[in-house]
Design a protein that fits this description.
There is one protein chain. The chain is α/β, with parallel strands linked by helices. Among the domains are: 227 residues, P-loop containing nucleotide triphosphate hydrolases (Rossmann fold), CATH 3.40.50; 177 residues, 3-Layer(aba) Sandwich (Rossmann fold), CATH 3.40.50. Helices cover 75% and strands 7% of the residues. The chain has 24 helices and 16 strands. The chain has a six-stranded antiparallel β-sheet with strand order 2-1-4-5-6-7. It has a five-stranded parallel β-sheet with strand order 8-12-13-3-14, with helices on both faces. Strands 9-10-11 form a three-stranded antiparallel β-sheet. Helix 6 crosses helix 19 and helix 7 packs across helix 19. It is flat. It starts with a strand and ends with a helix. Keywords: Coiled coil. One of its GO terms (molecular function) is ATP hydrolysis activity.
Length: 1265
Amino acid sequence: MKILSLRFKNINSLKDEWKIDFTLSPFKENGLFAITGPTGSGKTTILDAICLALYHRTPRLSVISKSTNELMTRGTGSALAEVEFEVKGKAYRAFWSQRRSRDLADGNLQDAQVELAELESGVILASQIKQKTELVESITGLDFARFTRSMLLSQGDFAAFLNASANERAELLEELTGTEIYSLISERVHLEFGEQKHRLNLLKVQLDSVKLLSAEEREAKLASALALKETLAQKQQQLLALVDCLTWCDAMQAQTQLVEQSEQGLQAAEEAIRDEKNQLQRLADSEPAQGLAPLFERKQQLSQQHQALDKQVAELGQQLVSAQQTLKELSEQQSAAATALIVEKQAQQALHHLIDTQVQPLEQKLAQSRFKLTQCQQALDKSRTTEDELNHELSAVQARKQDLTLEIKELSTLLSQYPQGQALGEQLSGWKTQVAQLIELEQQRGELDIQQRQLQQSSTLCKQNLETNQQQLTQAQQVQINASHLLAATTAQINELLSGREIHQLQQEYQQCLDSQHGRSELAKTFEQYRKLYATWLELTQKAADDALQTIELTSELAKVRLQWRDKNQQVKDVTGLLSQEKHISSLDAERAKLQPGEPCALCGSIEHPLVSEYQGINVSDTEQRQQKLLQELEQLKLAGEGLNLALSKLELSWEHTQQQLTHCISEQQELRNHWHALFAQLGLSLNEFALPAPWRRASDGDKASINPGVNEAAYLEALESQLRSFIVKATEEQHKLSECITQLSGMQNQEATELKALQQAEAQAQRLVSARDVLSAEQCNITQGIEEQIRRINRLEEQQQMLIQNLNTECGQFGVTLPARESSASEYQHWLNELSANLQQWRLAQQQLILKQQQLEVLQQSSSSISQQLNKNRTQIETDKQQLMTIEAELKALNAERFDCFGDKDIEHEKDQAEINKQQAENVNAALVSKQLEASTLENTIKTRLDSLNEQLTHLVTSLTEHQQHWQNALDASPFSDEASFSAACLSQADRQALQTLKNELDTRLHQQQALAQQAKLGLEKLQQRGLAAEYQLSLAPALRIEHGELEQLQQQLTQELWQIERVLTEDSEQQAAQGSLVSQLEAAKQSYDDMAYLHALIGSQKGDKFRKFAQGLTLDHLVALANRQLGRLHGRYLLERKGSDALELQVIDTWQGDALRDTRTLSGGESFLVSLALALALSDLVSHKTSIDSLFLDEGFGTLDSETLDMALDALDNLNASGKMIGVISHIEAMKERIDVQIKVNKMNGLGISRLQSQYQYQAVLE
């Protein structure tokens, strides 16, 4: 990580905005710079700004928020800090700012604004405080603590680390490197060890507490259950017989009621027929009128047809007069059009005569001349094109001849390079075989080299294994001795702890505590249950009262809704009847719309329509809307009523449920009181030890009837709770003391077993190491022999390679071919052979191409001579075509002049077409007029024919109408009706007739159904009476049977309850057996887990966590010392650090200039102490920065106490450190420091103002300008 630039504003005493760019001069050329200034000027503020931009805090202020900001310069309204930094070649920008409201100095602090972005692309990665902090830590690998220990180094602190005691150094290591996790692991192992031990003991106690039925008890329970099942089966048969008898009694009563109801229904049906007698009479009276209706309708239809025909005859007469006038006008127009047609035909004939006799012959001569001219021109163009093609072809042939000549020359040169090419081609196959042998030998040599290296590596590894084995054997023997000593010590401690007692005596006392523990727990649980039941009783009492009050309110509301529903339902019925009538009237709208004043109605034949306007004013949709609205209101009332009914039913059920709960609650309270007295007896306690309230004391038989919670019981319960808690705490403490004693003894016994196991393992390990040493020695001997054999094989391969290379040199020298150097590899020989093969292939190809191109050159010479002859002949033809073209052009000019004099420049076909168009137009006009004249004549004849037909129809219709009127009158006279009016009165509309017919059908159906129901009811009653006589059932015995049925049901429930209790006991015993098996499995698993944890606890576990922490701190200190020695080597080569031989975290210095003399760190001089402390600081920077490279360091203070000589030594060390590529910033006010370091950032105090300033080049506004 490297700091690129810093920008800040109004931080501490540094007012205004400043920017320091470390990528520009002079920082770019000098990686070492100083931040100088008087004490208190604000030098450390620059480092605070870096921390603030990255982590929103500083080493001196850990909290900067909306409520507090001690960093913002007094009298300013905003502050900011921005750092540009680089990690692994990628640059980022971290930003923090905070301002006061309206940027006023006395305004309230606002929320801080933060941002992390990529510098190159400007993409914002995070804009929230937590998100940005996590992302900075992820990118840099440094949290705030590691950052301040790796990039911002305070030398004074590490001098304190160097001279600290062992305990203080352990605390510093834990704080600086985060090794506190090892202490937590050690403590956690200790706690887990205790929990595992407690869990194991608890499982043992639980296993001992499982109570099972004996075999005799279980057999007795099973026999009782079997007897109860047989008794229940007998009672069930008796109960079924009683149910059958009671069912017959109930059916007899129901069937008797059904007979009475069916007779009442039959009487009601007959009464309904009598009530509808008038309506049924109307239906009977309409039957004669129904037979006369077709004659009456036919008479009315003929009358209407007679009126319509009269009207049509009058209209046709008017149309006939109009058609005759139109025909006269069209005849006059057609005569004029025929005359114009004759004139146009004569003009067309004159034009055709002129064209045929004069113009057309001239046109033919002109066409012939133009055709000759075109042919002559085409022949001339063709000759010129042929000339161009021949010239181009001749040029191409000449160019190709030149190319072939050059190619033949190049091929001759290439062939001259290998005069012995044919012989070389024959020798090449032999050389290929020899090169292949060389490659194979080299591959074998490579494989032998690999095998030899592997054997040498195996030999080295085997030697290392032998050395390691010897070390392990020594260690194993030492471990064996140590384990033996530990085992003896642990055995002595166990005997000392027991002091002549047996552990089973302690376990027996502890078991008694555990047995009473369940009773104590049950006592507290019973008390808590009673308190809850008391609260539940109060709630249920209040709920029952609320439900009763709400039931009265809902009953009143329901009565109101029912009254409203009856009124609304009557309104719906009224509106529905009105809507039915209106729809019937509206259904005749189509016929009513055709009615005209004075014209007969199509339905009734009347010519008067007095109610048409009234019917047209009826609006059925309004009535429908009113009906829909009423139906909606009725539905709402229905839903409201149903909701109130449902709510009332729920309330009634809730009240009943509450009463049941109250009864159950009082019963449970009494049971809990009895259970409480039983627990007291079980624990061996006296009731006088507790101030029990009256309801809790053992009542006499006369007082057991009803004991309900009293008013003062809450106070009693509160007092009792305090006494009960005190009793349980005392008993639990006694149990814990015994548990700790047993746990300690058990732990020591486990430790003894573990140490014995360790001793056995150490002995086995030592024996295994001795056996492994013998195997390794034999393996080393075999490897040595293998290496010698590999060397001999390699020498033989080298001799074969040299012989092959010598043969190749001899053969190639005969043909003048150069081979690669003798020390070349087989791949280089293969490359040489491939090049030689390619060259010979090119030589053969060139030889073939030379012959082919010589043949091509001869063919091109012949083609050149032929093209020259064709070119001369074509030029002669061009001259002949030019003379002929001039003659044809003169002839064409004379013919054009003669045609213009005869016909001008007019087009023959156009003139013919125009004459034809004029004639056609005249013909079209004449034809159209003739067609219209014909249509008018046809229309006149059609109207006349239609008029004659209508007159004939009218005559026939009058005759038919007279006959039908006579038939109607005869039928009317023969009917029961006196006149046509009485007939009309007897007629019914289709809807009325259908309604009356439906009514008659419904009444008849209802009568038949009621008759059938009455008959079925009587038959059913007779069957039941016959069944009762057969089974000797009597209705009078029903009350006694019901009592007996209830007693049997109660007895059956009692027996079922007893059977359920016995089966429950058996089920619980089976579950206890299964639980016992499960506890055994859990105990075995717990034992295994406890053994593992005990072994781990022996290694690293401790109550305070110091065992594993000290081990981890020792490793960390060793790593830190190694890193510090690496830094000392770069800074000053005299001193090295090392740990003392003891287990404590003590350090000592090795003086390499004094024969590696050992010195205490407190004997170092000031300069020496500075160097060692600086090395430790840099080492810790590497230690806490994980894998992140630290390329920027800032050293704060530490130089003020050094003399000039030591200061020079320190500055030399910093120069050496700078040479390693790090950018180093030193904060100091020492004058000698200013003289030695050229690049300085000076912080100047402003006298009397309490603020400071940097140099002007760091002013941010100046940079912008």
